[in-house]
What does this fold into?
Amino acid sequence: MYALAKIGGRQYRLTPNETLKINRIQGDVGSSVVVSDVMLVEENGVVEIGRPHLPYAITLELLTQGRGKKNTTYHFTKRGGHRVKHGWRNYFSIVRVKSIEKGA
It folds into this structure.
């Protein structure tokens, strides 16, 4: 069984008891988060496609929150003497899929 769900503006393929790193979501470490934007579910070879969503709920357990590696960009102007260095660190959450349930 797996499901395609939209979390934080991105689409993820989720299976039960899977651990994955996603864009940061709100919540405390150790708490549960319910996602209801489920677009596709496959179970025992039967595929259900939502138009646009299905009546499923995915429960996620929030394991950790943090910041990733430093990303750096540079901008140079050829003859203008203009140089800009910009850096940032993306926020992320590590979650575990607890369950995928119908009827939400």
Remarks:
- The chain has one domain: 2-102.
- The beta strands are 2-7, 10-14, 19-23, 32-35, 38-43, 46-54, 56-76, 83-102.
- Residues 2-102 form one domain.
- The longest strand covers residues 56-76.
